[in-house]
Amino acid sequence: MERPRHQGMAKNTCMRWRLPLVCLLWEVAMIVLFGVFVRFGPEADAHWEEEKHQMNLTSDIENDFYFRYPSFQDVHVMIFVGFGFLMTFLKRYGFGAVGFNFLLAAFGIQWALLMQGWFHSFQNGKILIGVENLINADFCVGSVCVAFGAILGKTSPIQLLVMTLFQVTLFAVNEYILLNLLHVKDAGGSMTIHTFGAYFGLTVTRVLYRPNLEQSKDKQGSVYHSDLFAMIGTLYLWMYWPSFNSAISEHGDAQHRAAINTYCSLAACVLTTMAFSSMLQKKGKLDMVSREPRALEQCFVSLQHTPGPLSKRDGAREEPSREQGNKAPLPWLCTTFLHQGRSLPEAILTISILCRFIKAFDFTGSYKTRTPSVQGGFQAAGIFVSLLMAFAGGALVGAILKLPIWGDAADENCFEDDIYWEVPEDEESDVYHMHNPDKPASP
Amino acid sequence: MERPRHQGMAKNTCMRWRLPLVCLLWEVAMIVLFGVFVRFGPEADAHWEEEKHQMNLTSDIENDFYFRYPSFQDVHVMIFVGFGFLMTFLKRYGFGAVGFNFLLAAFGIQWALLMQGWFHSFQNGKILIGVENLINADFCVGSVCVAFGAILGKTSPIQLLVMTLFQVTLFAVNEYILLNLLHVKDAGGSMTIHTFGAYFGLTVTRVLYRPNLEQSKDKQGSVYHSDLFAMIGTLYLWMYWPSFNSAISEHGDAQHRAAINTYCSLAACVLTTMAFSSMLQKKGKLDMVSREPRALEQCFVSLQHTPGPLSKRDGAREEPSREQGNKAPLPWLCTTFLHQGRSLPEAILTISILCRFIKAFDFTGSYKTRTPSVQGGFQAAGIFVSLLMAFAGGALVGAILKLPIWGDAADENCFEDDIYWEVPEDEESDVYHMHNPDKPASP
Amino acid sequence: MERPRHQGMAKNTCMRWRLPLVCLLWEVAMIVLFGVFVRFGPEADAHWEEEKHQMNLTSDIENDFYFRYPSFQDVHVMIFVGFGFLMTFLKRYGFGAVGFNFLLAAFGIQWALLMQGWFHSFQNGKILIGVENLINADFCVGSVCVAFGAILGKTSPIQLLVMTLFQVTLFAVNEYILLNLLHVKDAGGSMTIHTFGAYFGLTVTRVLYRPNLEQSKDKQGSVYHSDLFAMIGTLYLWMYWPSFNSAISEHGDAQHRAAINTYCSLAACVLTTMAFSSMLQKKGKLDMVSREPRALEQCFVSLQHTPGPLSKRDGAREEPSREQGNKAPLPWLCTTFLHQGRSLPEAILTISILCRFIKAFDFTGSYKTRTPSVQGGFQAAGIFVSLLMAFAGGALVGAILKLPIWGDAADENCFEDDIYWEVPEDEESDVYHMHNPDKPASP
After folding, report:
1. Is the dihedral of CA C110, C113, C119, C125 positive or negative?
2. Positions of the region Disordered (chains A, B, C) (predicted)?
3. Residue A429 belongs to some domain of the structure
4. Residue B10: predicted pLDDT
5. A294 contacts chain B (CB < 8 A)
6. A435 neighbors A31 (Cβ within 8 angstroms)
7. How many domains does chain A divide into?
8. B351 lies in which domain range?
9. Between A138 and C318, whose confidence is greater?
10. Do A98 and C330 touch (CB under 8 A)?
11. Residue C177 CB partners (closer than 8 Å, separation 6+)
12. Quick one: closest CA in B to C418, which residue?
């Protein structure tokens, strides 16, 4: 383990025993924990027939499955294809982008099912799961994917798994505090998913900052077809956002409204984003995908801040969305105009959060005994807690990830797949080496 | 504005102020118009509970949302991934294909919601929207995507937005005349979407014809991976066609039947298309994607002429499809055999339209007071109006697009992304320039 | 027909008349057979209104269409995009992978609708089809896609169509014997789809084995972007597996449970697969996609052996899954640990099949008069019949495919698209030929 740390010397990035050991141990733990704790919820198990009669339902079609499963599959595609391919824009990091996203998300959803289950679906010592739990697990993992985008290319798969473990845990704790203790209204997962996810990711990035990476700017670029692969991810995230926002809304009009609302908002986002993209580029050209991780962050946050429905969670049910039912579906002005600029400073992000905050006062809320101003105080507390968890948690996790035991790559090997992946020695790579003659052909 | 027009001189293609200005102004207009006119429809707003009782519905699952949302998302994927990637076959125009399709479709659906809303969903001064409106907006934009295919590589983004504005408007007017005034039966959007869309596109292409483009044949070719990207688009258009055809059919058996019908017809199309593709090629090889815009047109038109259900619209409800309920689901013979040949002259297209026309006589129709022959006359009038709108509208829009203010590229820059997009300077492009030494590496 | 067979001489691979003839003749046959036999089922035809009342259903939403259509579309994507792109990993065989998969699947689903219809949906001389038939046809074709993976790159399109014709036929016969005669329980299509499909494919591969192909190892490799295309296929197969397993389960809790079960199992599979992938590679690197057809086979079989629901078919309805309703959803241990190793010998496959076999004893079954041990005997008979059909059928079909009339490629042309496809002469291929100077540029 006493390996030299100074730059230029190869770090030990071999995963042969470390990765399998971590994966298999964790999988054994998962199996034990699932065996002990997890059971099918009432609408997924054999007692559904009795349950159905108790709930005065007349048909199998009223099983929650049919209300949510199509949206669930769309969200699933967003997490694995959307986020995975979004990050394939890097020249030689496509395998890492798709593959590590796959690995961490698959691990994360198992852990999220348990963590969120203990906090929200725990009855008589068992976690009862149904399709809504699957969606919430995917949501939780979505915040990890956002953070992954911020440290893309600089971490080993084990670091990503460790980060996922901690981030999912903190996410579930934060969610519990906000929804169940503070009874905060969290429209569209604004605080629990987006504020927490983005600032957690940014904090981890800051801690893991490597000053020498500025040298290897060329590897941080894209090639023509890698940008097209990234467009697959972008489009799926965009197209399925109505499903993301409506997936856990209440049955009936609330889901319907959430989908329409998001559809309209997103269409407007495209035009404003293109406008700013062209305006901010020196020659007025459009930029295919944002290339800096920061920009990615902002892009998500802004997209996700589109005025969505209130999410249906334990502590914050969504009667307000009924009250505002007949309003125009398009108060997107503030959202899109302010947020879409790729290089606008984060200050604007904060403004937008404040905007949401002010907007939150409008909701007189389901927690009926609170006056609007009291509820406003609780909303502020919710933001404060989310930011605290993000900064403190991010700093802690960043420090853990800096330990020299996780097998991360040396600076000169960042953004390269062949550290962790079998990469075919192909024509393209021959061409690549033709133009980089000082780099040996086989790693 | 007095810039030289003769070939060889660079045109001013800089979008820096024009594109943002157009996008932002239109977006402001959209926001105002949506704020004034658009409201949630009865099944999407808070009155749904009352509505539900009035309609004698017992469950939230009977909200139209659950009948149509899965199909809607499939149609959405067809428009953005299907059409977007279908056109990525060109060597160096993948960004334009996906990106401009994204831009025009996102703008188009907003304008289509308004236009179709004013004509079909207008009550008490408000447009009431629900999931069916979203699907119809996507359909309308589909006809713009078809036209985009016909002028691919030769237009600036502003021209595309202008074309979208006009085409959506004409589409909605044509639809109104046919369905609400003539009470024409428009099976599968045959006249409103496909006949109108294809001939409008062809007319615009003819007006924008550039004789010198024959020289740059090489840039109009594909490369190996660009053809694979195009296959993503092709497959999604093919796979989700049953959703396209069933999305706005009536609830229950009609949607069921439309999906089955399309599934079977499409499977047959693949074999006949492959057969003709092999037969018409000199060495009997198969062609991955049709490379000429014309062929694309035809392909769509033929695919879309598959015997689908009658679309459910105001003026033309679809009882006939119930009457023909127990027939075999596969009268595809004429459709597939005639239409799939890539280079068959357009005459065949017209024949096929006549076929449909004759078929239309079978439908005694919901407009019950009409005799079949009277209805046949109205059908003929419908085709006539659609063609008239397509030719006259296409000529007008083509003339507008020829104005020298839209920033379109010079002939020698057509089919190249780097006019309007930041293109990475990558290995591939180095290789590209290696083989094109007379072209400077940086634009 | 007396053409020389020794290596080095070009075989006649021209498809110009053979392929169109086969396609068009078969399509004519399909049209006649569909015209004679196929009709819409009760829930898809105009009698649905009466039917609905007879079945005491109150709403159109209780049409089977709404229970299954979203899952059907997911399965459809798995067959065409999932399997199609999964096999694009080969350097120069992407067109063949996607295109031939498209061709054979489109033909296969038509023939499967007929074959499965005659065996399972035949009433009064007519095949009555609904959405469940479409799903079953896609399932049946899935087993052909698995077999296609095993002979990828070595066959002509006509051979693939012939294989599809026979395999679909044998599949339907095997399914009929197992489900309707032996009343075997076939959890998740374990025997009918996976055991039969995999061993049929392996047998055909063995018969078509070409010893000289070892020389052209280089063409059997991948390039960087071809591996990324393959990841699209992998992800779609993985993401939509819950739909695959729940698509034809019983309404309500059974579908719900199947989806949850598969979701959890699949997440675990990712970690164990990554672990073994890293462990078995000399430098501990991860492998993007399995490159040997054998590994592909195993991968499918193992994935598909995930403890899914019992499929709902005539002979084997699924009360057992209700009995085990409240169990933990995750008995995946055996499945994932044993199966995921890429190079583990097939022996393990057999063990796993034995595991399932033993597990099958637990199910006391719907066929209520049988004791568990008698049912166990029938289960064993089911496996025996499936293997027999696979080996004997595979040998027969392999022998037929060896006839010198199908236009397959010579050894030195295997794994190359330009035998059967118009391939663009692009930069990449120039580069390719730069590195293969002995091969002429134009075929």
Report:
1. negative
2. 305-327
3. no
4. 58
5. no
6. no
7. 1
8. 18-434
9. A138
10. no
11. C385
12. B285
Taking each helix axis as running N to C, give the angle between helix A18-37 and helix A94-120, from 0 to 180 degrees, rounded to the nearest 10: 30
Q: What is the CATH number of the domain that holds B398?
A: 1.10.3430.10
Return the residue matching tokens 């550290």: A419
Cβ contact, residue pair C330, A421, below 8 Å: no
Give me the helix-helix angle, B293-304 and B131-150, nearest 10°.
150
Q: Is the pLDDT higher at A283 or at C109? A: C109
CA atoms of A256 and A71, how far apart (whole Å): 12
Q: Does C256 touch chain A (CB under 8 A)?
A: yes
Distance of CA A131 to the CA centre of its chain: 19
Give, in order, the Cα–Cα distances in Å from A19 to each of A161, A208, A397, C276.
Answer: 10, 21, 19, 9
First to last CA, chain B: 23
Average pLDDT (C169-196) is 84
CA-based nearest distance C222→chain A, Å: 6
- Distance between CA atoms of residues B228 and A227, nearest Å: 15
Rounded Cα distance, B242 and B306, in Å: 10
Cβ proximity of C35 and C27 under 8 Å: no
Least confident of A56-60, A281-285, A334-338: A334-338
Contact A192, A384 (CB under 8 A): no
* Greatest extent of chain A over all pairs of C-alpha atoms, in Å: 74
In this prediction the ipTM stands at 0.83
The pair of structure tokens assigned to B187 is 């099976």
Q: Which of helix, strand or coil describes residue B33?
A: helix
- Which of A326-330, A332-336, B213-217 is predicted most confidently? B213-217
Strand pairing class (A126-129; A38-40): parallel
Q: State residue B40 phi and psi, 5-degree precision.
A: -65, 140
Give contacts of B65 with chain A, Cβ < 8 Å: 252, 255-256, 259
Distances (CA, A) of A370 to A13, A174, A323, C365: 55, 22, 17, 56
Give the H/E segment covering residue A129. strand A126-129
Chain B residues with CB-CB distance to C23 below 8 A: 271-272, 274-275
Among C15, C64, C98, the residue with its CB nearest the CB of B278 is C15
A217 contact B CB<8A: no
The tens digit of pLDDT for each residue in B308-346 reads: 332 333 333 233 333 333 333 332 333 333 333 222 333
Quick check: C395 pLDDT over 80? yes
> Are the C-beta atoms of residues C160 and C148 closer than 8 Å to each other?
yes
Q: Please give the Cα distance from A316 to A296 (Å, whole number).
A: 29
Q: Which of A26, A59, A428 lies closest to C223 in CB terms?
A: A428
Q: C5-19, C146-160, C193-207: which has the minimum mean pLDDT?
A: C5-19
Quick check: is B10 in a domain? no
Q: What distance in Å separates the CA atoms of residue B389 and residue B178, rounded to the nearest whole number?
A: 11
CB A185 within 8 A of CB A365: yes
**What's CA C39's distance to the chain center, in Å?**
26
Whether the predicted pLDDT of C135 surpasses 90: yes
Q: CB within 8 A of B48, min separation 6: which ones?
A: A252, A253, A256, B42, B63
Determine which of C67, C253, C265, C272 to mutate to test the interface with A (most A C-beta atoms within 10 Å): C253
B413 found inside a domain: yes
Q: Which of A31-40, A298-307, B252-261, C60-69 has the lowest mean pLDDT?
A: A298-307
CB contact under 8 Å between A287 and B422, yes or no, is yes
Strand partners, B123: B126
Q: Is residue A30 part of a domain?
A: no
Q: For A94, name the nearest residue in chain C, comparing CA atoms only.
A: C228
The chain C residue lying nearest B337, using CA atoms, is: C24
Q: Which site among C60, C231, C238, C339 would you substitute to test the A interface, given the most A Cβ atoms closer than 10 Å to its Cβ?
A: C231
Range from A65-79, A402-416, B265-279, B405-419 carrying the lowest mean pLDDT: B265-279
Strand partners, B38: B127
User: Are the beta carbons of A256 and B26 separated by less than 8 Å?
Assistant: no
